[in-house]
Design a protein that fits this description.
With 364 residues, this protein is of the alpha+beta class. It folds into three domains: 33-145 and 153-170, no CATH class; 183-244; 251-289 and 302-363, no CATH class. It has helices at residues 2-16, 21-24, 55-67, 193-207, 231-239, 327-335, 341-354, and strands spanning 18-20, 25-27, 33-42, 84-92, 101-108, 119-126, 132-139, 145-149, 152-156, 161-170, 183-188, 212-214, 219-223, 242-244, 251-255, 260-263, 268-269, 272-290, 302-321, 357-358, 360-363. The chain has a six-stranded antiparallel beta barrel. The chain has a four-stranded antiparallel β-sheet with strand order 2-11-13-12. A three-stranded mixed β-sheet has the order 16-15-21, with helices on one face. A hairpin with a 5-residue loop joins strand 6 and strand 7. It is flat and about 105 Å long. Keywords: Bacterial flagellum, Cell projection, Cilium, Flagellum, Signal. The basal body constitutes a major portion of the flagellar organelle and consists of four rings (L,P,S, and M) mounted on a central rod. It comes from Buttiauxella agrestis ATCC 33320. This is Flagellar P-ring protein. One of its GO terms (cellular component) is bacterial-type flagellum basal body, distal rod, P ring.
Length: 364
Amino acid sequence: MTKYLFGLLMLVATLAQADRIRDLTTVQGVRENSLIGYGLVVGLDGTGDQTTQTPFTTQTLNNMLSQLGITVPAGTNMQLKNVAAVMVTAKYPAFARSGQNIDVVVSSMGNAKSLRGGTLLMTPLKGVDNQVYALAQGNILVGGAGASAGGSSVQVNQLNGGRITNGAVIERELPGTFGSGNMISLQLNNDDFTLAQQITDTINRSRGYGSASALDARTIQIRVPTGNSSQVRLLADIQNLEVNMPAQDAKVIINSRTGSVVMNQEVTLDTCAVAQGNLSVTVNRQAQVSQPDTPFGGGQTVVTPQTQIDLRQNGGALQRVNASANLNNVVRALNTLGASPMELMSILQSMQTAGCLRAKVEII
């Protein structure tokens, strides 16, 4: 009974580590493209650009009105409060077709206080080749909220940016070469020679040996059989295959901006000793008023600053860190040091230099 239970547990552990090929790779050439445009948002409740400080808003409005047959007299100083100049960005999806709707993000580029309640006017979205691929227009949804009265204000989230769901229509299609060749290339999300070989072996076992070959740690080339009229069906079958994940590289990620430390399950420790002391410097400055002894003695009142500096160093005792073979023991060992996240960053770097931290340390 024990043997069967042990085998069942091993099978469950193996299945738990299996991932689909679609989650580990992308198809080369099948990707999104960035679009960008410049436009105007109207209908704001007095929260638009101050046109005296953002002349490009007035210039854009004059150009738009002239295209609509309205001529603004030269020298007119338009004091607008309900108009804002914005940048519009979107992602052109792979295999997009004319007439398809995509989401757009609208961001203020002037000094508008809020885009809430605004409407984006028709804005052409261009690609890197300066060609128009989509037209955006619609009502903006702003996720933030704010209020002000009597010189006081409160704000939740960002008010100068919003989103328009299905706010742009594809007008131009990109030429594609998918399905025209006899080779398909898969690209791994992360460089890994072991994983590339395992994916190749899995495809060969399913489709026949010689169907796939790993070119390097990121690229896997798949041969399309002769007479196969649908590469879509071929990829659909391959992407749903499951691959047992190999052991990952032991890594410790340190975010110096937020003070966070993240490590994966492969991190281990060797026995070492760590001494970490806290050095605190306190500067106390007070002003002391010195007055003359007699009211009419001819003296002057003088303010004399007095500064007191206190230097303290706490802790610093040498502590033993036991060897740890799994992540739980690593966390328990590091917690015994009682170090803050900022101190832990320096400790981990020193441990790696000393050779007792079995992991790569990356600072982002």
